[in-house]
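Let us walk through a complete example step by step. Step one is to write down the protein sequence. Step two is to encode the small molecule, pyridoxal-5'-phosphate, as a SMILES string so that its atoms and bonds are unambiguous. Step three, shown after the inputs, is the structure prediction itself.
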Amino acid sequence: MRSAGKIEIDLAALSHNLRQVRIRHKNILAVVKADAYGHGAVEVARALTRDAGVFMLGVAYLDEAISLRSAGVALPILLMTGAPADQIPEIVHHRITPVLFDAQSLTLLGQYLETHRQTMNVHIKVDTGMGRLGVSVADAPDLIRKAHAQYGLRVEGLLTHLADADLQDLSFAREQISRFEGLRSLLARDGLPIRHCHFANSAAIMRLDTLGAADTDLVRPGLMLYGYVSGGGGRSLRPVMRVRARVLAIRNFPAGTGIGYGHTYTTSRESRIAVTSIGYADGYPLALSNKGVMLAGGRRVPVVGRVCMDMTMIDVTAVPSLQVGDWVTVIGAEGDAFVGADELARLCETIPYEILCGVGSRIPRHYVSSSPSSGDSLGDSPAEF
Ligand SMILES: *Cc1c(COP(=O)(O)O)cnc(C)c1O
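Step three: the predicted structure of the complex.
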């Protein structure tokens, strides 16, 4: 074994998921932060660039934006965590669009642009109730007026982020949207209209009708592009990532044998135990010890014992055909069976985001394009969120 396993990234599924968003939204800001949720930001961005519907990419930190630019990605990139003073020259140089939410960075950016006789687009972030980044709704008009007055700044966008769009109870999400819409009309009345006003992450995009949201000309999907949604729904999406591991060894143990560190599992009958080539150092959570499920020979089999740093044991008594060197599926589909990042997340009380982002620091990624009808992908039902 040269590596812990392999990750297959299905670009056809990515493009399918993008189309699902595009059915209703013209302008898409594709969120590719955290290495595109573990899918590889450069390759994902290139694939999305080939798709005419992407208006912009979104990243969290400057290095993420610069590696996209270095790879030749020319789309506008929104830097969503602000423009720290020491990063301004590079932000301007690489033509990154920063999200701004305080007067100081706005002034510093304006001064830099004036000195260098340049102009750039910015988006202003307002906190309508997330309690994270953003100028307060009350202070937003002043900040936006200031931005308009600064040399070189073009206020292209106004955004906010919803705290609760994935909950059953959408009342607070509705409240946030109404504060946002209120601000937007106030700005329009004051002669400060903003071209792109955006608030919708994947969960909000899936529930726009229920949210009763009016016009959303620009949306910011992340998770759903990769085939998952938090809070349910998403049957029309196709998971993009498939994680596979190899079988390193298989042994038969009699009943009563302790398996792995701490003997947290003891065989209750004669058992065939396979050692797979993935562990917590590859992002397979320790919390899946004695809880996880993998696919072996197209069947669901349980993780037994503690997940180790480099290996995880599974009980393959029910899969006599499985041999050393065979592949097992850790996340994704195999034949008709499927284990999703969302299912694993539920099993170990986390969220699919953390599972996807965590996988793969040590596992090489391969880019493939499956057809939706091939046995290894999910059924392709019509769009219905
Ligand atoms: C991460 C992020 C998104 C995307 O969220 P998903 O839930 O993955 O769709 C959208 N907007 C902002 C500001 C984000 O930080």
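Step four is interpretation. Confidence is low (pLDDT under 50) at residues 373-385.
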